[in-house]
Amino acid sequence: MKYETAGDPMTGLLWTRKATEKIARELQREGIMVSAKSVARLLKGMKYSLQANRKKIALSGAGSRKKRKERDRQFRHINRMRECFAEQGFPVISVDTKKKELIGNFKNAGRVWRNRPRNVADHDFPSYAEAKMAPYGILDTIANAGAVYAGISHDTPAFAVDSINAWWEQHGQGRYPRAKHILILADNGGSNRPSSHAWKYHLWDSLCRKHGLTVTVCHYPTGASKWNPIEHRLFSEISKNWSGTPLSSMETALKYIRKTKTATGLTVSATLNRKYYPCKEKVPKELSTKIVLEEYKIFPKLNYTLRPSN
User: Less CB within 10 Å around the terminal CB: N or C of the chain?
Assistant: First the structure.
């Protein structure tokens, strides 16, 4: 189940690709005699839910079968990389930008126990907000520790890499003092999309050259972001923690992020980033050609390694 779980970052709902019969058989092979019905009860207790199919994908024929096989192959590759890095004691981090939040006295979905309702603005106009927060998160999947860097500018590749660099300087290098390699799990879009030259350049410049790290990146296939661990292990917990509470100030938002904890021992830090990041950054050709990048044979656009030097 370790790498077969996905989840909704807003509701915390979890699901798995494995059937209860298959899980029961695997447990029986390990000497744990359990039935499929018992597995179903255990999954329900772990907040998993049965999910019905929805007709949303406009694909048919051999092309769709090929894409499904490619997705599964990429999932298997990511699982192998996670195991390989973890066995060697190298950090494995899952990264993404959480849904942007308006800071002000606005309605926040959810309910909390009160003796009277709290009145908030009847419209969520961005012009009325103190700021629009873009929370970029880094989940250390081995240490079960999260770090969120709340930007108030634009969600750009430079902002994403600055957040990862800050995590390494504040947490990573102290937690993994001997590590020279790092694995990053990222989505296929947004500020850490694989097609962005700025994303790759800033990773190489800020992590590889500055800290001497070899950085391997694995991107989840298009439409598979919910399988990225940060979505259901960090972002959903933050959403549940501030559910029903207006994010009336940046201080309030950061406080609720920092207070996010789980029964499994998750801890979270939060830092405000006031730096301005311009949109549509273009990396000059003379800089992009300096990047030392090796693509994997399996889906080279989704899997690559950046090195400090040749």
Answer: C
